[in-house]
């Protein structure tokens, strides 16, 4: 009887350890990202933002000067996650991949990994701010 209880206890203990190990492993594999988009148009115009990926549409958001919009997600297992945003302000429209796993979740990329990816949107270019306060990384508009 005691032997049966010990076996059940050991089985439960091992099961709990496996669940905890798997959960930590899964969290590391599917790293959480937080994207923040800030309207820094020099003209102080309202910025219309529409972000989406293959399976999720974040909707159309209107940002006044200095306003921000953010969203969270997890990078997929194959590290192919991409969120594309369209931006519009008076007389202009542009698109840009606001998150690309190959650029933003890759330690070998020139801009490195970001867990909180803060983007300042200017007329000439979207710029990913650096956490250390250094010069932001600006990229050309896709269109």
Automatic annotation (TrEMBL):
Subcellular location: Secreted
Any one Gene Ontology cellular component term annotated for this protein: extracellular region
Any single biological process term in GO: rejection of self pollen
Extent of the signal sequence: 1-28
Coiled coil: none
Alphabetically ordered keywords of this record: Secreted, Self-incompatibility, Signal
Subcellular location, principal: secreted
Stored InterPro entries: Self-incomp_S1
Family: Belongs to the plant self-incompatibility (S1) protein family.
Official protein name in the record: S-protein homolog
Species name: Brassica carinata (Ethiopian mustard)
